[in-house]
């Protein structure tokens, strides 16, 4: 079937793009023959050098120049991107067998069910469409971060004659106050950021690829229930065929459970680090922008916020799929036409579906869109508290700052209470 082959080829093409980006960073763990190579070591060296440069920046800014605000930028970039990059790379190398299992399982899923009826192909097509959208969104956001942060520095230097580094990261031996030193620091920084962009994209897509297909499992399960109902209606006396249909449904559900458990175990630490560092990055970047120390912070904050939204959307997708499986067990099968043994089998499956766990942030919070809402509230509260602290010694400045909020008088009263 041309369309079926086209669907499976499209899925492999998407995975191939992820593998190319991962291979550039020396981390194409999807290849069974993968070994740590020179590119892997080079990326690790870049991460380690960046950490050293960030530590040097904190030392110069805080101890030499007496500027504590440099710590905010270091926490934004170093505490976010460097920790994320290191965590993703180590996780890929450590969990390479799980990555291969997940991709092979999806390839097998497409190869088998693309040969089925149009309904199965429709759910496979929807899975590819969803993965394609996430792939394009992730690529756009990463390119926006790399190009946007570089353009901000270029425009400020050329148009406004203001020398501002892409990120506040000094390099020993280069003086940013001189034209030559400023140029070399920015060249090195944009090169490091570009390499990191490939790594971020590959790491994120390795996470998004299996999770984006979770709903495909539910769709195929729904098709299996429909096939069972047709068997019960057309051949009510064929108990062997209906029993095999129920057995096939249970086996496929077990396949879904195993796929989800492997995904959850593989990305446990990645999810914890991603959400934690995105939160730190957003909050510290907001403070840096408010203090006027990092013009490129707007671009970086957009990147952090959008990617955190995508991660939380993946968690919500798993929750919705789990609820959909439970709903299918209730509503998509003609229970009263099943035998007693078949009902017991489906009842066991239903109990397992009701207790299927979703993705979590360190086994503390569920990974879902509600996490973004909580983070937004926390960020606003921290930003307001910081604004009050900065303006506590100046009533006139405090009036001006609080006036920018919607509930000016109420927040001014709260600010005064906080400072006695």
Descriptive account of the structure:
By secondary structure, the protein is mainly alpha-helical. The chain is 79% helix and 1% strand. It has 14 helices and 2 strands. It has helices at residues 2-24, 38-64, 70-94, 96-113, 118-158, 179-212, 214-234, 239-266, 268-291, 297-331, 340-354, 369-390, 395-402, 408-418; strands at 360-361, 365-366. A two-stranded antiparallel sheet has the order 1-2. A hairpin with a 3-residue loop joins β1 (360-361) and β2. α10 runs antiparallel to α11 (340-354).
Task: Based on the model shown, name its key terms.
1% strand; mainly alpha; 79% helix; disordered C terminus; 14 helices; two-stranded antiparallel sheet; 2 strands; single chain; 420 residues; elongated
